[in-house]
Structure formats: structure tokens, C-alpha cells
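Onboarding guide, step 5: your first structure request.
Type a short instruction followed by the sequence, for example:

Predict the 3D structure of this protein.
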Amino acid sequence: MKKIFKYIFAGFVGCASLSSCLDDALQTAPTDSMSGDGLLANANAALVPLNGIYRSMYASWSPTGNTHQSFGISSYNLMADVMGEDMVMSAIGSGWFWYDCLYNVKSFYSSGAWRSYDLWNGYYTWVSNANYIIAAEETIEGTTEEINYVIGQAYAIRAYSYFMLAQSFARTYKGHESDQCCPIYTEPTVAGTAGKARATVQEVYDQITSDINKAVDMLNGIKRKHVSHINHAVALGLKARIALVMEDWATAKSAAKNAIAVSGCTVLPVSSFSGLNDSSAGNVMWGAEIISDQSTMYAGFFTHMDACDERGDGKYGADARKQISKELYGLINPADARKAWWDPENENNKSGGYQQEKFKFSDRQTWTGDYIWMRVEEMYLTAAEAECRLGETAPAIEDLKAVMDKRVEGYTCTKTGTSLGATSSDYTGSLLEEIIIQRRVELWGEFGRIYDLRRLKQGFRRTAAMGWPSDALLGNRPTDDPECYMWVLTIPQSEFDGNVNMDVKTDQNPVGDYKE
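The system replies with C-alpha cells like these:
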């Protein structure tokens, strides 16, 4: 079939390690080349295709003209951040991420060079390769621990991929369980595999929760081989993220608390992880170690973030600056050490927001810096939110303080309640709002703001007073309506072209902000 699966990374079978060359990994042969008689015959050999999947999570691989804004997980998080209100894009630059920021990508679903194709292709690539590994569960040789290490990660990768597909191509879980979502594939797919119809949001989340639970069970007690691998703690962290979206507060709480306990990570002072570019830092649960021969140069996260103002090195981050909204910056305690993550005095701020200093290259000469995908601070804030939702005020404040005590000396909080405003600029003074605000500050640039806005069912506003340029104010768009389809991506035309069980007339998401 011509489906998106024809672009699977079959070449990963040739990657001996995470540092193997990427060019060989970008073949377009069907994934059935990942034979059970070869690399999937035993657990140690299966680490090769598994590492290939992880390599693609931080590589610039887009098969079309979208390369500079398609570098895996970090590019998708950046996309979701500029879609919100807290990360100001001060200028168009060369256009990378600008059209995500303007919500002007959905009508280009017939092109392979735009966001719909990139996300759909990327996540389904990981699903398909994970399916090949999972299919070998009963035949693969090795000790129980070796097999569980490989298969457990494959389940986690599949859960994560479907979770992100659901958040990108459907409205949020709660209240939209019967909406159309995306097709579910749990078996290996090849060029002739028949495409499936869109499953419902509920069906997709059922698959997600089943997969992540298997991953948590299988990875329990196993020491991981590399920080890029999903271990027991990271699987628990993903389970906590999923539970937040599903509004399963008890599961979110227990998963986050367990993730903290087994991760071995600790909340660090801001000064201890300057630049957010070191995956070996004591607060990092999951990330990608980027070495010099793996740098994707212009198609990389730090290239888009680091303006290099203090040295004038002229990286792309100076052309399309990423800045914090003045409104969010104004909510930060004056004594908060995180104030150093932004520079309100930077001469390039002009009428925009405040220039970011949070993300810096670790080595500008080699364009390197590690990508951070999960920190233990997120888990404390997740536990705090879940406890607050459950009416457990004292434990919620305790977990909030676990982070804030390392940010603001003498931090106290006496707030209560769970009320949130209709938009993120409508303030209520509740404890839940305080937790969410600190989450916005702590995870700025790391998590993808729009994902939280969706699950919280809050609208947002952009104003010139926040530092937004006039072209990005979205004044004629329903940003205050969390039920709209404004931030639900369209499905790429290539899917309809190759899938007889999907019809563009009935299965395509709205190109506009509402269903007609």
C-alpha cells in the first residue's frame, strides 16, 4: 500500500548503536526487513533496531522540505509551545515554527513538507518499528530480564506514540471519548498491509493504557543501558502524563510518586543545570545525549533557542527569537532563581517578550547540547496537581514545595481550591492555579504548552502587552474556546491515498476552527 508506513525506518536494522550513521537509517523499504530470524532472534541483537528508534527521536530526518523544524521529540515540544501563549515568537525568521505559531498549517495537508505529514509519519514510524519488536515477544531468545528490557521499551514507545498522536489529531480525552482519533496498529505492517479505519479516542486511550501498563511491569527492577532508553521510572512518568490527560487523578498521583521514588533523581537548584543541555544532570529522567557527529546543526533545538547574544555567534536563535510572555514573567516571584532563565534587559527584546537564556548550547563550535525530555521536577508538579484535584491540600503543597524550595528561598503557599479561569489570563487565586503557573514557568520550552491547555480545557489570549508581535495575535481566531478544532491537526492526504478504510470526505479533521 502507499500508506504512510512506506516511509518506515527499515534501515535501523543496520545501526549498531545510538551513534550509528543516520543516512543508512533513512531507507524506505518496508519494515518486514526487520526479520525475526536476524536482529529479533535474541534480545541483545534486538537492541540494534531499538536504538535506531531512539536515534530517530532526536535526528533530523524529515523526507521532505520540513527538515529544519523536524528533529524528533524536541521539535514537536517546541511546536506545541509556540502554539500557546507563554512562548513568544518575536519574528518570522526563515519561517520555521512560525506557521505553527500562527495556526496556519492545517490547509497544507496534501503536502509532505508541512506539519501534518511530519507528525503523522514520525509517530507511526515509531509505532510500526515497535510493533516488529513486540511481535517477537514469544520467540526472542535471552534471559527474562534481557527480553523484558527490550520488549518493555517497545510497549512504552508504542504507548507514547499513540498518546502523542491522540493529542495532535483529536480533541482532548475527557468529554470526547467517542470522537474519531487515529487508526490502531498492533501488528507488523508491510507495504501491502491494508490500512485501518480511525478508532475512537476511547479505543486509542485503551490501547495506550494497556501498553504503558505492560511497559511499567516489564521494566520494573531493570537497570537501563543509556539515558535515552525508557526505563521503569520513565515509563511511570509517561503513565502519569497519560493519567493527567485522562483526568485519572489517583493514577497520576501514584505513577508520579513512584516515578520519583525509583528514578534516583532529585530536584536541583537552577544553577546546577544551567543551559538545560546535560542529560547526565541529577534531575534528568530521560533525554538524548548528543555527540558532535550527531549534531543536526541548523535543524536542532538549541539552534532555534540560543541567540548567542553574549558572543555574537550568529546562530538562528537570533533571527526568530523565543521569548517569555511578559505576563507569565510578571507572575514569577522576584526572588525566584528561575528569573535568570530570561533577560528583560536584552537590547533585542524591543517591543517583544523577554529573551530566553534557559536553553544554551553546551558547545557552540560543534552545535551540541543534550535534549532533555523528562525531569523529576515535572513529576513533583504532576503529583501536586493530582493531589490538589483529589482534595489533598497538604500533600499537594508539600510536593509543590519540593520544587519551589529550590527556586524561591522561604517559599510558602497557603492557597486552596481547584478553580481555574476560562482562559489562562483569568486568575482565580486557587492552589490548582498556583501549581499550574509554577508548571508553566518550570517546564517552559520543555513540555509543549498547548498540550496542557487542551487537557485543562482553558482558552488563552495573546496581546501586544505580553510581547506578541501583531502578526501573531490571532485576534480573529477562537483561542478562548477549548472545544474548537483550532489546535487539532489535519490528517495528511497520503494517508487517504493509501488507506481504503479512510475517506477524506468523512474522516478528515476540520481544516477550519470548527466543524462545518
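Each response can be followed by summary notes, for example: Residues 144-169 form the longest helix (26 residues).
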